[in-house]
Amino acid sequence: MQSTSMANLIRKAIGVFILIPFAIYSVCKGISLLVLSLIFRGRAWMFQKKERTARPSCMNDPNLGTHKTVRVKGLNLHVVVSGNPHHPLMLFLHGFPECWYSWRHQIRAFNKDYYCVSFDMRGVGESDAPLGVKNYGMAELVGDVSELIKVLGYTSCVIVGHDWGGAVAWQFVARYPDLVEKFINMNVPHPGRFTEVMKSGIAQLLMSWYIMFFQLPYLPEILVSMGDFSMIKSACKKGPTTDEDVEAFKYSMSRPGRATSFLNYYRAAVRYPLSARIDKIECPTLLIWGTGDFALHTDNSYGTEKYCNDLKVERIEGGDHFIQQERPNEVNEIMRKFLSEH
Hints:
Domain AB hydrolase-1: 88-328
Low-confidence stretches: 1-17
Oligomer: single chain
CATH class: Alpha Beta
Transmembrane segments: 13-40
Keywords: Hydrolase, Membrane, Transmembrane, Transmembrane helix
Protein name: AB hydrolase-1 domain-containing protein
Number of strands: 8
Organism: Strongylocentrotus purpuratus (Purple sea urchin)
Structural class: alpha/beta
Largest sheet: 8 strands, mixed
């Protein structure tokens, strides 16, 4: 018993020993980006911000569906629905710094066979943004998904996630298996696998520097919004993504308070975490992974089999983190094959 306690104490000490320099590195990197931008771009560039009062026309494309407001857990969620409501539900969960519109290619591809629903998650775009970090904890985000499915009148769905939406989806599928028929995730590892990769080497730790930096007040908001949200274009302007598509994401992020509320996802993940030890995923699961991801090491896409009973992994060589937007045709083909086989 004493040896077990001593081993746990040693592991915690090692964790703290690693965490302190990582925190220092993360803060220094974030601040250096701000300082270098100020020096080489100037104050005017850093704090410029275009006023956006209306959606870009691309977000109103009727082929993407109808915009609705749905009341969930006391919040108004902005929802876009496309297809026949008598068809099976395909529910999309977006990532950072995106919104419902990040699934435009998949909505167009699957709305003939499914009732496609993509929504701005709480604190994003045209959905309500409650104040306080605790309102963005994983338990709240997972609860939104379960309630939305019920409000839509469904008892099950095909759930599709990416980035933060993918992280929520892993937790949701494990906790509400009866509500999920099939599960498709993109460039987000199972939480257990992510923990393993973080502990196994320094590569993922360094790639995740922004998570620690985002714990600071004020400075992260300046970083993500500087240059009229230039980081959105840097991150998302890949493949067929147009300048108007980028405007859609800027419109979403530039709404009052939305930069802070979206950053609160990261803050809540550290302050109010859910356990990475979740139940084994029982439903058919597809993990699509772009191997050129700048935020998540490809090692995260390996070793997931032990967490899922029925897993298919498809890697897209050189694909970026925003794989569903950068390589939509390949992603849609992989999705369609998986759905037809299960």
